[in-house]
What does this fold into?
Amino acid sequence: MIALVTQLSDQDNQYWLSLFQAIILDEKVLLLSQMSEQDKQKCDIAILANPRFSDIEQLPNLSWAHSLWAGVESLVEPMGKLGLPLVKLTDPKLSLAMAEAVLAWSLYLHRDMHKYAKQQSQKSWHQIEYIEPQNRHISILGLGALGQKAAKVLKEQGFNVSGWSYSKKRLENIACYHGQDGLQAMLKDTHILVCLLPLTSDTQDLINKDLIDLLPRGAQIINFARGGIVNDKDLFNALDSGKLDHAVLDVFAQEPLPSNSAFWKHEKITVLPHISAQTNPTSASKIVASNIANYRKTGLIPDGVNAKKGY
It folds into this structure.
């Protein structure tokens, strides 16, 4: 018995349920709201999308749970309390979508589109000096599956690409850094900093005044990770002082972004509604179903989230 536990809309719930029921034919997949008490007792696997902790607690005999999202920071603590393995979504299509977004918005900054849009509003005809890609240094914070694919795509476009991670990584034609010393070395000549890190206790407010001060004046930031990684006050101060030229933000501490948020009106901020890499329901449902089928055959739970690391 498999439970689909979410806080999605009724329409989204029915859509996901139809996908799983069409793929998983040899056992029941039910929304938690559809399950009897007997069903809940029999359920040993849960598929999760922004669930309430109290809902997960209604399934006392779970063996493990699979998230429909790649980001799992909100699930790590509650699943840890229950002592249950948590598997996050790892989808090549998600990596490709993120790489596409990183490339698109890096080009947006690289080709000064934000500046030309402002000039249009001012009816100003002024050509900005063109910089060749090999002279633009783009650095990526986070070299997991998403970061590695993004780095490769940027490199293919001729950019000077570096990447940083907590542990040592090696990528062909990409300068890889790790640790605090490596971070400082990478940032000192970074023109565009792309954040793809998971949100953990170590990355909370990582992009703060101290980190921003390591960047050259006029650097730009893209955050496609989680809002909590950026210290908002320090970001605004850096933009207002000219230390940073522009920030493209797809994620925020509070989402949806409130209508009275200062982010909307700041001339040096581009606001996106969390669209950099959306889960592809068709491919995601197949990956989750495949992981469950393999577990049924082998009894092996897929590689899961490291509770200590938070991802």
About this structure: DSSP finds eleven helices and twelve strands in the chain.
